[in-house]
Amino acid sequence: MALLPIIVAPDPRLNKKAKPVAEVDARVRKLMGDMLETMYLAPGIGLAAPQVGVLERVIVLDLAHEGEEPRPLRMANPELLWVSDEDAVYNEGCLSVPEHYADVTRPAKIKVRYLDENNKEVELEAEGLLATCIQHEMDHLDGILFIDHLTALKRNIILRKLLKAKKAAPQPARDHAL
Fold first, then answer.
1. Do 110 and 131 contact (CB within 8 A), yes or no?
2. Name one GO molecular function term (predicted).
3. Is 133 annotated among the ligand-binding residues?
4. More confident residue, 50 or 70
5. Is residue 94 part of an annotated ligand binding site?
């Protein structure tokens, strides 16, 4: 397993649409494992491949509480089959939008189809926090961040703060060519 660097907004790579994987093979399983390790150490409850610079339709989630046995979900090529008319509001955050949270309204219940880590097609009905997390991570696959669901004013305030924090952060040393 390897830790992967998490891309932080604003970054144009987070706005790109990811491509489907042909199959869940050893390479994709390794990516899923690396993503889970990265997510657990961040710490977070979900991570999408574009957040670690891989433009493939792969997401991982784990809603287990601290001290509980991990219950990771690994999804490739997830697609929504159905969403409820009923909405739910959750205060969302994101590893690519650190230290910022906002209420986001999404369908309360969903049905999703995906390939699991064994390349088997699975259909899953989800509600509550799990439904919200799946939709949040699926948004990343289409280049959408949770802040894109906010008003332009709120989104721009958060983006300005993130840009200011990026500029203030120490830059890694670079070797110079002669």
1. yes
2. metal ion binding
3. no
4. 50
5. yes
Coil, strand, or helix at residue 10? coil
User: Does the residue 175 lie in any domain?
Assistant: no
pLDDT in tens, 117-147: 999 999 999 999 999 999 999 999 999 999 9
Question: What is the rounded average pLDDT of the residues 45-50?
Answer: 98
Query: Out of 92, 117, 121, 137, which one is annotated catalytic?
Result: 137
Burial of 170 (0-12, 13-18, 19+ CB in 10 A): exposed
Instruction: Identify the pLDDT of residue 178.
Output: 45
- Per the structure, how many domains does the chain have? 1
- Tell me which residue range forms the domain holding 118: 12-166
140 annotated as belonging to a binding site for a ligand: yes
Give the position of tokens 């604003």: 10
**Is residue 122 one of the residues assigned to a domain?**
yes
pTM: 0.91
Q: Is 66 a catalytic residue?
A: no
Structure tokens at 78: 């997830």
Where does residue 15 rank: exposed (0-12), middle (13-18), buried (19+ CB within 10 A)?
A: middle
